[in-house]
Design a protein that fits this description.
Methylamine Dehydrogenase, Chain H; 18% helix; single chain; 41% strand; 6 domains; five-stranded mixed sheet; elongated
Amino acid sequence: MSLLWRINASLHSITCFLLITIFLSVYSSNSLANDALKIQNLTSLYKLVQDEQGFIWLGGQQGLIRFDGEQSINFSSDNPKQPLPFKWLSDFTKEGDSLIIASANNGLWELNTKTGQSQLIVSDIDDNAFYDIAVFRGSYYFQTKNALYRYQKDTGETHLITKNKTIDEITHTNKHLYITDTSGLYRVQEKSLLNVINEPIFGVLTINDSVIAITANNIYAIHDSGKIVSLTLAEEITKITRITSSYNQDAFFIVNTQGEINKYSTHDLSKRHHRYKKQQPIRLRASLHDSSGVLWLASSQGVKRVYENTLIDHPKTFDIYANANEIILFNDNIVIGSYGAGLQNLFSKTFNQKTNENFSLNGLKILSLAVIRNTLFMGTFDGLWQFNKELNQVSRVAFSDNNKLILKLRHTENFIYIATDKNGLYKYDLTEQKILWNIKPSNGLSSEEVIDILPLDNGKIWLATAKGIDIYNPNTSTVENIKIPDGNKIVSVLLAEDKIFAASLGNGIYIFNQQGHLLSHVGQGINFSGLLREEGQIWASARPGLYRLSAHDHKLSMVENTEQYSFSGSSLVHNNTLYSSHYRGVLELDLTLKPIFNSNVIISKTTVSGKSYLLNNTITVSGSHDLITLDLASLDYRPGLEKKYQYRINNNHWQAISGAQLTLTGLASGSYNIEIMATNSLGQWSDIKAYTEIQVEYPWYWTSEIKIIYVIALFFIITLTVWLLYLRTKSIKHIHHLLKKDMKNYGRLIKTIQRNLQLTSTSLDNNEFQQSKLLIAKSLFVLEEAVNAQEPDNLAGKTLEVAIPFLGDFIQSKYEVKLHFSLDNKVDSLNYELKSDVYKVIFEALMSAIFKNEAKSFNLTLQEVKKKLWLTITSDNDSFNQLNSKVNFDLASYTIRQIINKHNASLNTFNNDNGSSQIVISIPLMALN
């Protein structure tokens, strides 16, 4: 029972944890997704400003808000991450990278737009409730309830300019500062106010060297040069609600209480054309025209973004199953071929009620139009039809079997190519009025459904079929099949710049060369319906959206505001205007307006291991475990496609970013240069890129200082190794010299005896016996002398009890050195090889010590202890150090070391405090036994 209770409790805990996790993730995603909605719902804004980077700043009772089109950051006492010690502000203005803020009850403040840091400027006056602010010639001008002040930046002093005057606005041109109140417009002079306009001011605006003032009946433009231009207002805009300069400041907008928007030239007050629609009646509190052409209108109803409409929609719907209509230019008029209502007019009255009476029921469903020799041909559900302009009637084209469902018509000179739904492709001769040939799957077509036709100058015909693309060669009657990689249906093919563009129903546009090789693939995931070429530009209809495609570099971008339309595929250009059919009518686009806006791509916020700061600087992290998050923004506030981002590191390949946030971690130590690209609202890649640098510090054992130490240490190690190798080489050369000398001596002895023997033989042959005896005696003397001169360097078949005393006598008589020894009686029971090796070690050690030092006596002990044979030799001088060296050694050292290695013995040398030295050799006996 207890176990069951624990299992249920664990399951309950896990369930709660999962629910909390899901809630937090949903809440987090919603909080990000609703940032734009929060901006739209702000109702108490007093000012809108666009800064140098392109961010929109909104200020009012909610504090100061930075908006990048997707996310917002609030600067106020409500946000501990981006604090300002107040929430309510009355006005703010831009000064370089800073915003100067007039708070409602906390004085005058400066906020750095790049760092988010703020500081108090003025708080030393009696009234801390500030209203308007202007920055002019190094000073800040601001007003309290009934006074105007100036704060001098260079001295930090605040001066009163005028008192007991209610001021509506403060503004300035390049040369002059102005204020307005209920009585008029005043120029602020050194110690007085100069009245410029003595009428109530409904709106005032300064642009560079001009001040624009609006009264009840007039607009005034007062230039710094002294020139004054005035314009009498039309009755419908006399009630002004807001005046706003255009972004490039060559014009200004006036919005009246009826929601009408008018645009005027700053220079001469001439009225300018614009494409902003009339709004609902509003009373604005703030407005702004930004760099992307968006007009921001803030009122008590919230914030509205108004977009310039470059499109004109002509609604056209018919009582048919699907309002997918074709359009074509016929007799200089645009006419419609409907999907069930026959021929229809767009603007002119080309057709009347009787036009469609001769159509069959299926003939009313028109799928394709073609104008040939002033004759309108129609491909329908019931074959090929034509329109007679004089009779205002339609009739079926006379050829046999003309009742097939026709999908597309294309013509060249005297021929019409007819693409059908189930019968392949026909070629019709207009002169002879007959079908020349018909190709079907039995002729090699990939499908009986042919959707589009593209005849080329080389005689080949490209066909879009239900299963891909076919290239038909009429000269050889052969068909080449090209399969689309992902199997999407091709609905339109087009030739431009010697390349074939094929639009697919679901996955973009494929680009081939004329040999059928795929060159590129753009617009993945977009459902296209048709292509039109016009002077190097390709217009691609999609569902939804209308796109521009460059035939040269294949750049694809959506036409602004077309994402709300679903296009059926038919488009044409007439009088420099594009007309494109969609499911609710025909859209008109003025081709003289080609808006190209390179939005500023920026890192709006950087977060490193949980610590966030505005924008970005060089990022330094301690190691690969740090998490770096870059919030990205493409500062284009127009509607359109979801913006795309991509990045690359150190000029490597570009990589796509999911969403508008780049997260990096696990970077190895080193320097990284990050480049970021983004699209604008139309899907065009901006030429402006964002950059940042990341420095990942090296671990302590791989810093620059440690590397220097490593290099120095390596240098000394190499130097020491070379020196030791030099000493070893020198020792080996010395041994070789001794061996060579020994061999040379033995060689002389043998040659001497050999010569004497040869002479003896010759003497015997000559019966010279006396001479022979002398030569033999001489040879015996040489041998005896060599034997007597030879040192006892081997055991020579003797026992150690005999050989060691003999050795002691030898060194005493020849070198005046005493040898004291103590031998264990067990040692002679060992095998002869071991005893011989032990004797050789004793001899070489004593000879080496005698020659190297001035030793006078040695003590030698040889005994067996615990299955080991211990040899200890003590000298009264420093005699044995050289025997332990592996580099600087002689023949004695080499011989001893070889014997030590042979018996797996150990060798140790010691220096005693009294100046004596000792060698101890331990030889294991277990292996021998």
